[in-house]
Specification:
The chain is mainly alpha-helical. 91% of the residues lie in helices and 0% in strands. The chain is elongated.
């Protein structure tokens, strides 16, 4: 079962990041990209949990979806921290000029 669910987790993470990049390119805001990745954590966590429940046929497989959501939450947190750092660097550079 690991041969199916672990690559699926990677696919969900990559898709969430691609959606975040597309959002960043449209809105030019890292904060909105981090928020979209945060929202996709809930969405992909629910989808992953449902797929795991239907595949494994065990009610405790829903925790697989929570694990996907956890990784995407960490991913969103990393993007948010990068957004804060970029904003701080821009503010520092504009105040020095």
């Amino acid at each position: 079962m690991d041969n199916f669910l672990l690559p699926l987790m990677g696919v969900f993470i990559v898709i969430a990041n691609i959606i975040g990049v597309i959002t960043y390119r449209k809105k030019k805001s890292l904060y909105s990209a981090a928020f979209i990745i945060l929202l996709s954590a809930v969405f992909f966590g629910a989808i992953g949990g449902a797929i795991a429940v239907f595949t494994i046929r065990d009610p405790f497989a829903i925790f697989y979806g929570m694990q996907i959501g956890q990784y995407l939450l960490f991913n969103s947190l990393i993007v948010f921290i990068i957004a804060i750092l970029v904003s701080a660097v821009k503010k520092f550079n504009s105040s020095n000029l």
